[in-house]
Design goal:
Layout (H helix, E strand, L loop, with lengths): L4 E7 L6 H21 L4 E7 L2 H13 L3 E7 L10 H6 L4 E5 L13 H6 L2 H15 L4 E4 L5 H21 L2 E5 L13 H8 L2 E5 L1 H9 L3 H14 L1 E2 L4 H21 L3 E3 L14 H8 L3 E3 L4 H13 L7 E12 L2 E7 L14 E4 L11 E4 L5 E10 L4 E11 L12 E6 L3 H11 L4 E5 L4 H11 L2 E5 L5 H17 L1
Parallel strand pairs: 1-2, 1-3, 3-4, 4-5, 6-7, 6-9, 8-13, 9-10, 16-19
Antiparallel strand pairs: 11-12, 11-18, 12-17, 13-14, 15-16, 15-18, 16-17
Helix pairs in contact: 6-12, 6-14, 8-10, 9-10, 10-11, 13-15
This protein binds manganese (II) ion (MN).
């Protein structure tokens, strides 16, 4: 994607002589080439490093080169790790240690001490692992045979996570209006977020957006209407209302593209000069990969953009979501998630419909929106909260189901799910950790990816799984408070 790549750096030393080193280099090149065929980004073999200077040089180059999203290391042979200290200390990109071996099997007849000297990743990788542990360097360790599908899948996911790290560090968020009045969890320290996560979060006046909306031409609206027709069913005759959403979408996209923004927030409390709350407009922008947060929630907007980028093909099935209401019937306990309008159609089970209905909030005209059901499958919900002095990323495993009721009078997109470990315990854990009502729901990004992303950004990560209990979580949060104060 866009010429981005990962670098493969293989550790060794001079002890083995040129023949062994040539073999290591040739095999590393072969492995990088084969892995590039199945991974989402090319893996470029850089060097079989034998000295401190070589390692320092390649790490400095990795930092400087914008194409390089991260470094994957491996030790085919033994590489004394004091040589790695200076380079690893300088490395500012995500770092993965692939603990693998060129050969799968130990060859019974062929194995002798020459074979042992060439194929000694088992102790080379341990020496290499020690120094990153000693340096407290955030890194991903993936162990297993490099041709194994499971290993390749985890490498692919780690690459997408690293792409999310790079994306986060250059992310700009466009705010239209401020946060919804009096709401706490959507607030946050924008300076701290820029220091930790790289986000540039700034505000543009709604009046400016209205000016740009006025400059949108009928021809531009006609073109976007064609895109809407190709993607969605029209379940309304109120074409003018849909065209107004197209006008809003074109204007917001133009402003974001001019400023290099990939995410935006707005609020129904500040729609000055606008006839409709953007519904379809925000939903289609999310489908294109832009992040969105309602009620001024710029944190969830940025997380939506990042998690979309971390998903399949750089725009996965991830959506701005809000916990709305429960079905508390024994044997059928579910959460129903939705929003006033703005759920991304990337999570739809079937082709969405464009509908026009009144909106009881915001005091504007009836807005057009996409209505659909979320698909069935395992997913996560993720919330970033500002704990005062630090950021906490909360992730919960969920299983989405086909909604158990048709709900014919509910005029918004909806997703129904079972929270882990169960509705009540999951809810108690979520509330105990301080998780927001706004989340990013993703079928595409895994909890492991979010854990790795948080580690790279240097923020706290809390994972609510099928095994979590309230008591264990309370202990974890108590210890986390102490640990993060010490940092
Ligand atoms: Mn909301």
């Amino acid at each position: 994607m866009n010429g981005q790549e990962f670098w493969f750096v293989v550790g060794s030393q001079f002890l083995y002589g040129p023949e062994v080193l040539d073999t290591v280099a040739a095999r590393a090149e072969e492995m990088a080439g084969e892995l590039s065929k199945v991974l989402p980004y090319p893996l470029v073999y850089k060097v079989t490093a034998k000295t401190n200077a070589e390692i320092t040089e390649v790490m400095k180059a990795a930092n400087y080169d914008d194409r390089c999203l991260g470094v994957i290391t491996w030790c085919h042979t033994f590489s004394p790790s004091k040589m790695w200290i200076n380079g690893l200390e300088l490395l500012q990109k995500p770092y993965c240690h692939l603990a693998t071996q060129y050969n799968m099997e130990i060859p019974n007849e062929e194995i002798d001490m020459d074979f042992m000297n060439l194929n000694q990743a088992a102790h080379g990788d341990r020496e290499h692992g020690f120094i990153a542990a000693r340096l407290r360097k955030p890194r991903k360790v993936i162990a297993g045979y490099w041709k194994d599908e499971g290993v390749q899948k985890r490498l692919a996911q780690w690459m997408r996570t690293a792409a999310g790290v790079a994306f986060s560090r250059s992310l700009k968020v466009m705010r239209f209006g401020d946060n919804m009045r009096e709401v706490a969890v959507t607030e946050g320290d924008k300076v701290e977020v820029q220091i930790k996560l790289g986000w540039q979060v700034n505000t543009w006046p709604v009046g400016k957006l209205v000016e740009v909306m006025d400059s949108v031409t009928d021809k531009e609206i006609d073109e976007l209407m064609e895109t809407y027709r190709a993607s969605y069913d029209f379940a309304t005759d109120d074409i003018e209302t849909v065209r107004y959403q197209a006008r809003e979408e074109i204007a917001m996209k133009r402003m974001m593209d001019e400023e290099g923004c990939s995410a935006f927030s707005n609020t129904f409390q500040d729609l000055y000069g606008m006839k409709q709350l953007p519904g379809l407009a925000s939903q289609h922008l999310m489908a294109l990969g832009y992040g969105y947060g309602g009620e001024g929630d710029w944190k969830v907007s940025a997380m939506t953009a990042i998690m979309k980028r971390m998903g399949k093909d750089g725009n996965g099935a991830s959506a701005f979501m809000e916990d709305y209401t429960y079905n508390l019937v024994p044997g059928a306990k579910y959460s129903l998630g939705a929003h006033m309008l703005e759920v991304c159609p990337s999570v739809a089970a079937a082709r969405p419909r464009i509908e026009v209905h009144p909106l009881g909030i915001g005091d504007r005209e009836d807005p057009a929106r996409l209505v659909f059901e979320g698909k069935e499958g395992d997913a996560i919900v993720v919330s970033l909260v500002d704990m005062g002095g630090r950021l906490r990323l909360i992730c919960q495993d969920i299983h989405c189901v086909k909604p158990i009721l048709p709900m014919p009078n509910l005029p918004v997109a909806r997703v129904m799910w079972q929270a882990m470990p169960d509705l009540e315990t999951g809810l108690e854990c979520w509330i105990t950790a301080g998780g927001a009502h706004h989340t990013v729901l993703s079928y595409d990004v895994t909890a492991e990816q979010m854990k790795d992303w948080a580690a790279n950004m240097g923020i706290e990560f809390v994972h609510i799984t099928k095994d979590t209990t309230v008591e264990l979580l309370e202990k974890e949060l108590f210890l986390n408070d102490i640990a993060w104060k010490l940092r």
